Fold:
Amino acid sequence: MLRFGARLIAQLSAGQVVCLTGDLGAGKTTLVRGMIQSLLGPIDVPSPTYTLVQTYEGPEFELWHCDVYRLEKPEDGYELGLIEAFEDALCLIEWPDKIEPLIPEDALHINIAFEGEGRKLTMTGFKGIT
Ligand SMILES: Nc1ncnc2c1ncn2[C@@H]1O[C@H](COP(=O)(O)OP(=O)(O)OP(=O)(O)O)[C@@H](O)[C@H]1O
Ligand SMILES: [Mg+2]
Structure:
């Protein structure tokens, strides 16, 4: 998962939104950790379960790691500054269904499913296409 994150982030840049879905404990935060640590070294990448957003200063752009599970309604995403971040930063979002109406059409969707002791990842380029 960490190695895949490192390969994935090399393909991404500012203004892109990556939505991470999958059950509790599927590995969404682990994948983000792989992405961020490959850019910034072995720093702490905590789950933003309570803070909702953790930002990181990348070499070229800001990274936003969001876990919006606790957001009560999608509109609360405006207060978090998500709309601006979708434009300017690379945003990695856990539980994107909570803010579904705010998610850009061209977001990358990655679903993580349990498969035996491992995980199966399904990537979708656009909404509705599998
Ligand atoms: N590919 C994998 N194979 C086996 N275990 C994994 C894999 N990816 C992550 N894990 C393990 O699964 C556990 C949960 O991972 P993680 O916290 O990343 O899940 P999450 O999807 O972010 O959960 P939450 O829904 O609570 O935010 C961790 O112990 C992690 O090490
Ligand atoms: Mg998580």
User: Anything to note?
Assistant: The longest helix spans residues 28-40. The CA atoms of residues 29 and 100 lie 19 Å apart. The chain has one domain: 2-124. The chain has a mean pLDDT of 95.
